[in-house]
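Lab notebook, bench 4. Still working through the backlog of constructs that have no structural model yet. Next entry is a single chain of 407 residues. Request: give me the structure tokens for it.
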Amino acid sequence: MKTASRFKFRAYAQSGGHDSGYLMAVDRADAVRQLSQAGKIPYELKQVDGTATTPTSQPFFGLFQPKLDLTHFLSELSVIIGSGFNVDVALKAVADAETNKGQKARIQAIHSQITEGKSVAEAFASQPNMPPDVVALVASGESSGRLDIVVSELSKTHALRAKRKSEITEAMIYPAFLLLIMVGALLVLSLYLVPALEPIFTNAGAEPPFIVRALGGVGETIKQFGFLILACLGGLVLLLAVFFQRPATKARMMDIAARIPVVSGIVRSATRERYLNTMSLLLGNGVPMLDAMNLAADTAPSAGHKAKLLLARQRVASGEPIWQALKSSDAFPDSILSLVRLGEESNNLATMMGRSGNMTQVQMQRTISRALAMLTPAMTIILGGLVGSLVISVMTTLLSINEMAIR
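Model written out:
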């Protein structure tokens, strides 16, 4: 018999208000079922105690489980819902058209839960690694009858994020190719060329140059422990993949990245863009201010920025205007704060935050483009210099052999 565990939840009530607390359930599905029966739509649900082993092993096995491609999924779903079809029909159409088996299974799981009577937000929340802001926005759109608009905006947002990732990946292809060439050259020199040169120095009674001794040592190490080295590297890569899959680890890494000169500006821009666009959608769907600020803070990529945004929420709760509270977070420039202030004074805050988010999005895209334009040549020069230094060292060694032959 399974033991009940304690779950912490945050959910929307039928009245549109915000509710949070704890409940006892056998597993996550049982907790969602209890909340659904109580008329609540959960957007965050996590186990805080109990002896279940699934959450502990999930990070490891999650590496081999098919994940839902939100960019493609939301894009297809947005097109069909925007054409006037309901969510049930749209999900079935997207699942039928999907060719990837893993992706198809995930979409079918969402569709089957909706056909069983669960809400769209509940079905989304049941999927592993589903971002809480996506669930919250879907819940707000569902309760306000504007789900088509929410899905459309989510589709655009994830498409832009996917485009940025693609640009960064493409910018790193050539430097990665140079790095591969350097590693290949190092292996050829240490395993084949240096062993042929060392006897020449030994027979001449001369000490081999440092580069020959160093490459010879690398070659001997690879010959003796090559398999062990590969196994250790594979295990290290697997451990790092599991480690960096944890949300807390990602947040800490983003905190570190926020201290790097060029990257810090991009992290701040990403924080502003996600926060403002999420606030615009939530407020536009009738979510209360404090609840919207709490949910929007969860979209911050770093723990430091999230803490500042939550502090701004506390200031609003104590009676400060939102523009003044956001100013204290030191995450928004004066140009954005002036627009937020104007929207608050004109009772048009959702629209002004949306425009501010779009403006921030354009500025961030320019910053990323400039950073990538500088990064690619810099990495190419550095790696090219390393390869050139290695070649020059080997050529110098060959010339010293000629000098010994002349003597």
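Notes after review: The chain has two domains: 1-52, 163-407. Residues 349-406 form the longest helix (58 residues). Flag for follow-up if needed.
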